[in-house]
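@channel sequence for tomorrow's demo:
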Amino acid sequence: MRPRNQIVQDAFHAAGVEAEIRLLDEHARTATLAAEQLGCPVGAIANSLVFLADGEPLLVMASGAARVDTDVIAAAVGAGTVTKASADQVRAATGQVIGGVAPAGHPAPLRTLVDEDLRAFEEVWAAGGTPDSIVPLTFENLLRVTGGEVVRVR
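structure tokens (generated this afternoon):
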């Protein structure tokens, strides 16, 4: 594992979640690429998307089959505006690059929303801290490791 993956793995363990980060043969920067490599439905991929809600970082764990609606997200968190974070803002908030943002292992805890549609899958797959790593989780463990709120994202 790479150092970034180890930070994420340690964060999972600290939350009481036993999940093993796996390194892929190729990067999986999109839900479609990840699903193809894993042989799972694209909806089972838990995309880690970073937004700014009234300027504050907000992590949204969205089903790979979902297109997040920022107005729905704004209403869920009581924000006046929600915008997509830039690559630099993502890196500053998470310590990770776009395409590899894990649900945990960030410099400071992030307010997190978890897409209710992910509940439909026995196993969901999230990035492991790098674009070529992934980790299988149950929906309950995704909630545990993120401390997230379950919401509709579209």
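heads up for whoever presents: The chain has a mean pLDDT of 95.
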